[in-house]
Amino acid sequence: MNQTEFAHHLGLSQSTLAMIEVGKRKFNDKHIKIICSTFNINEDWLRTGEGDMFNSSLYEKELIDIFDDLNPETQQYLIVMAKELLNTQHKLLSQNRVEDDQ
């Protein structure tokens, strides 16, 4: 994403964003909230540099909890199945792109 696209997500002009980047203007709380919600950024990290850069999704936390409760053999099986699911998704998306191009 370039600076113009990023500025558009924030509802700013590219020149305003450039001035923020060089310290001639400041981000306001509204823009910080937009960045965090649009890009799943941890607000504490953005403001202070502390903590994880990205917020975990609810699904990610649930999947990790489930994975942790599985025995090692079942964990390995889940990883194999997840990779197969990902491959299937890629194939379907590629197929849809070809159909859309026709």
UniProtKB/TrEMBL annotation:
<dbReference type="GO" id="GO:0003677">
    <property type="term" value="F:DNA binding"/>
</dbReference>
<dbReference type="InterPro" id="IPR001387">
    <property type="entry name" value="Cro/C1-type_HTH"/>
</dbReference>
<feature type="domain" description="HTH cro/C1-type">
    <location>
        <begin position="1"/>
        <end position="46"/>
    </location>
</feature>
<protein>
    <submittedName>
        <fullName>Helix-turn-helix</fullName>
    </submittedName>
</protein>
<dbReference type="InterPro" id="IPR010982">
    <property type="entry name" value="Lambda_DNA-bd_dom_sf"/>
</dbReference>
<dbReference type="Pfam" id="PF01381">
    <property type="entry name" value="HTH_3"/>
</dbReference>
